[in-house]
Amino acid sequence: MRIKPLRDFHDIDKPRERIKSGKISALKERDLIAAIIGRGVPGHDVNAIATDIYHLLEKRGAKVSHDELMEIPGVGETKAAQILAAFELARRYFDQEGRRITTPADVALMTRDIAKKQQEHFETFTLDGAGQVIDRHPITKGILNHSPVHPREVFAPAIEERAASIILVHNHPSGNPEPSSADIEITRMLKEAGDLLGIEVLDHVIVTSKDFVSLKERGLL
Fold first, then answer.
1. Burial bucket for residue 77 (CB in 10 Å: 0-12, 13-18, 19+)
2. Last residue of a domain, one of 48, 76, 97
3. Cα distance between residue 186 and residue 159, in whole Å
4. What span, in angstroms and rounded, lies between the C-alpha atoms of 151 and 132?
5. Rounded Cα distance, 134 and 144, in Å
6. Where are the beta strands (DSSP E) in 29-182?
7. Which residue among 25, 38, 82, 216 is least enclosed by CB atoms within 10 Å?
8. DSSP secondary structure, 8-57, as one string
9. How far is it, in rounded angstroms, from Cα 149 to Cα 58?
10. Does pLDDT of 26 surpass 90?
11. All residues at 6 or more sequence positions from 182 whose CB lies less than 8 Å from its CB, including other chains
12. Are residues 93 and 111 in the same domain?
């Protein structure tokens, strides 16, 4: 697929212009990368470089290395350093201010790494009394029907961390976020267990690469 060079965009549609106008939340990941690296090099337009970086980050995420970035045509030491610096700065402020989940969309954003997995990953977020995230915990991997989610494994981290509540999340590799009967049954079972332990199950969010569903919003929790 041909990547449209940045020079062919109207000024108002260029990433940095959209950021200036306060529309940063509407930018796609590739556009954000293009805004960070700023410009291309002869033979490699900034959008083409940003697209290659985006594909690498889809595979490696924040674990991407300087050497891996340098392997991309058009990425030199400066651009590689810009990307890694952006990750580090975001991490520091993210940790400093505390992470808060206020909507199912927040959960979907924070679990994009499992949304595209080819196996089902079941995880939990533990939260303190102020509603801030304490930690994220992988619980089980595999089809839920054949890989039972036991309350012991789900609530053990929450008990150890003295969490006030948890949020359940798992992905659907099929791409269809609609909850199955097993999803609903597991959610209700874990809610009952949480009620007994005094740890509230706030939501169960099902994520896919393109969408998500909140069982709480569906009235299934």
1. exposed
2. 97
3. 19
4. 22
5. 25
6. 121-127, 133-141, 165-171
7. 25
8. GS-GGGSHHHHHHTT-GGG--HHHHHHHHH---BTTB-HHHHHHHHHHHH
9. 28
10. no
11. 144, 145
12. no
Kindly state whether residues 93 and 109 are assigned to the same domain.
Answer: no
pTM over 0.70: no
CATH number, position 187 = 3.40.140.10
- The verdict on 85 and 120 lying in the same domain is no
Range of the domain at 56: 6-97
Q: Are strands 165-171 and 121-127 parallel, antiparallel or unpaired?
A: antiparallel
* Amino acid identity, position 100: R
- Number of domains making up the chain: 2
Note the pLDDT tens digit of each residue in 74-126.
999 999 999 999 888 776 665 544 578 888 988 998 888 888 888 899 999 99
Task: Say whether both 108 and 194 belong to one domain.
Answer: yes
Q: Are 127 and 134 in contact (CB under 8 A)?
A: yes
Q: If 0-12 CB within 10 Å is exposed, 13-18 middle and 19+ buried, where does residue 180 land?
A: middle
Helices (H) and strands (E) in the chain, counts: 9, 5
Give percent above pLDDT 90 in the chain. Answer: 48
Is residue 220 assigned to a domain? no
Residues 206 and 114 in one domain: yes
pLDDT tens sequence across 60-77: 877 789 999 999 999 999
Structure tokens, 25: 């939340």
Q: DSSP 3-state assignment of 140?
A: strand
